[in-house]
Amino acid sequence: MGEPQKVALVTGAKKGSGRGVAEQLAELGMTVLVGGRTRGARREAAAAISGHAITLDATVAAGVRRAARQIKDRFGRLDVLVNHAASLTLTSDPDEPFAALLPSAAYGPSKTACAR
């Protein structure tokens, strides 16, 4: 009997390099969970790789804990975590986009990695 299939969660996998990472993990034979805030986008991204969509806003600790419980209940474990949720829109104020980016890029990975 072979090893059980690894379970991976990728945040920010609805487009771009995050989606590319999710696709590569799926090609490696992993069960890939696409975590995100936008229902339609995460479902579409998950369907494209035969993965699973999971509601996850990496900036909200309670939501991250809920997602962690759902993953444990449904899949038993999480082997790979790719924190890729963040977006940046440049504006005329150089500080504005980075202030908006902090919740998802800085705090989100910590909350997601520490969730139980």
Automatic annotation (TrEMBL):
<dbReference type="InterPro" id="IPR036291">
    <property type="entry name" value="NAD(P)-bd_dom_sf"/>
</dbReference>
<protein>
    <submittedName>
        <fullName>Short-chain dehydrogenase/reductase SDR</fullName>
    </submittedName>
</protein>
<keyword id="KW-0560">Oxidoreductase</keyword>
<comment type="similarity">
    <text>Belongs to the short-chain dehydrogenases/reductases (SDR) family.</text>
</comment>
<dbReference type="InterPro" id="IPR002347">
    <property type="entry name" value="SDR_fam"/>
</dbReference>
<dbReference type="GO" id="GO:0016491">
    <property type="term" value="F:oxidoreductase activity"/>
</dbReference>
<dbReference type="Pfam" id="PF00106">
    <property type="entry name" value="adh_short"/>
</dbReference>
